[in-house]
Amino acid sequence: xxHAKPTKRKPRPKNWITAMRHETPTQRNPGSVNDFTSPGxxxxxxxxxxxxxxxxxLFALLFVVLIGVPSFAADPDAQxxxxxxxxxxxxxxxxxxxxxxxxxxxxxxxxxxxxxxxxDTYLLKSLDFMWGGDYERSLDIFRALGMLPAELETKKFLxxxxxxxTSAAYDFLNKRIIFPGRTGSREVLVHELCxxxxxxxFDIAKLMRATGGSYDRILATGALIEGEATNVQIRYRLGGSxxxxxxxxxxxxxxxxxxxxEAIRRSWMRFLKDVPPSVIRTQSFVYDEGVLFIExxxxxxxxxxxxxxxxxxxxxxxxxxxxxxKYLAGEWPVTMDIKGKKTLVPGYELVTENTxxxxxxxxxLMTHLPKLEAPEKVVEGWRGDRxxxxxxxxxxxxxxxxxxxxxxxxxxxxxxxxxxxxLGALTERNASFRDKPVYRGGGHRVSRIQLETDLxxxxxxxxxxxxxxxxxxxHLIAKTVPERRPPIGEEKKD
Length: 494
Hints:
By secondary structure, the protein is α+β, with helices and mostly antiparallel strands. Helix content is about 45%, strand content about 15%.
């Protein structure tokens, strides 16, 4: 295990909050890339990276692993003796009540288990619960879009990394806090007890089922759940709740969080070269954007009550997490579908479908257009999408049909141009999008057609019996535009 060099704590000036506003992140916290949201001095002995494996190793594992503390957030010098866990959990429960205003009614069991048991009794069972035992098929669309390696298998990945991907987790199936292979600190217990409190009050399993397997909605709900627990953990680390919320400007928090998240991502990429970058960015999203989302909720006059209200009306898209003002204003995503989708492409079978959302589209562009400047701006006007994967029975040929709708015609046009370019780069590298046999002149094509704010993209063999315009001409798009929900409270300004 590699540790950051211990740093000597300098005495804080009396008005150190004001002083920090004029310091750069490097001046404020030299050498600390992992204490990514704390504005205070660097944490002594903060774990760097060899035991850091992404907390969300595969898209199918999003919910399973995100309700835990990733290894980068664990202080290895603060590990507790197993016999002391119960007493520390009781103390952590009191800390949780001080910070959050509430704590668990019944303290859950706290157990140290083997990494093998962690994989077999927690990760795999949670996967089966979430995906009905068919998580490999659910990942096919991300393999087809080039966001995951075609050869990647979930269980083999878990065999390799299960023991080091998290320092602790809340097992929502068995209502317990588990430490795979080693214990952790009281700070970690505070984080996990926050998940136990969420489960008591709002039922994590119910929240998971409500996502319907949508990638976009899983990430949004994950940011709510993990963002709250991480927000509470940061407050514990800083020693009080007023410090984090009342004195530090939100924009300062946003800048520091994202700068340090990017530093962590770069470090992960160095140590985990065979893990797809999109997976690492997905992991980072639920923690970093989740913290900011929760902080925006807390800045309503209702404070923590606004966070409680969010569980009754969970965010349903990454757009609402990335742009909290849309969630707070009651703007909800448009749902899209294709009428007769199972028989849309003659000779091809519908394998799977999903919603990528604004964040997923951003990752897609970053994967295939790495030199594209500001991909987040390209997809900022997202209102809804649905992507479908079709394959021939022999699996040799595939077609992707991607619907989306945008805030304005201009947004749809600019996004469609870049998405088509990215699909073109994908089909150039993936032979399964080509006609067979290729030597007879077969090839691939990417079609794009726009009707006002709606967009259809199609990628597949030239001879595939479907054109993008057919979806419009035959009136096959079904859209549901939800009513605007009432806003939550009023925002408290800095």
